[in-house]
Amino acid sequence: MAKTYQYAYDVLSSLRDKYYSTGNDHQKWVDYENIVNGCMAAMDLGLACFVNVEIHDDSSFNGDQFQSDSRLIDYFDVIKHSKSLKIERGIWIPFDTGAHLSYDKKVEAREDLFKKRCTSLFTTLPVTPYS
């Protein structure tokens, strides 16, 4: 979707927030650069932007790349952006029922997220290449 910044900006201009999901398995289909383009465009539009990095013990991509990406550093600044870019880690649950993944490493949970109820289940319209 977000092969260029301008395309991402044009598509996102009518939304209020944007959620991305990435990780080792996602990146077979959606390049890291596309996620970065989408994050920058969403933030420049003043949208709340969240990225869930789905990981397992053998993940080579853990989301740290976002924190050190020079194009994104400014977007993490809560003083400059009232809706700063948020990166979270979650577990990857494979669609392939034969896959055997381990999850011994602890996924850091943010306590403040548990105090809020999840409403995105009923208010989110996922957009995929097949919908």
Distance between the termini: 13 Å
Share in helix: 25-40%
Average pLDDT over all residues = 76
Number of domains: 1
Helix and strand element order: HEHEHEHH
Description:
The chain has 131 residues and is an alpha/beta fold. It has one domain (5-123). The chain is built from five helices and three strands. Strands 1-2-3 form a three-stranded parallel beta sheet, with helices on one face. Strand 1, helix 2 and strand 2 form a beta-alpha-beta unit. The chain is globular, with a radius of gyration of 15 Å.
SSE layout:
Layout: H1 5-12, E1 17-23, H2 32-44, E2 48-55, H3 64-68, E3 86-91, H4 111-114, H5 120-123
Parallel strand pairs: 1-2, 2-3
Helix pairs in contact: 1-2
Features:
5 helices; alpha/beta; 3 strands; three-stranded parallel beta sheet; 131 residues
Summary, kept brief:
The chain is α/β, with parallel strands linked by helices and 131 residues long.
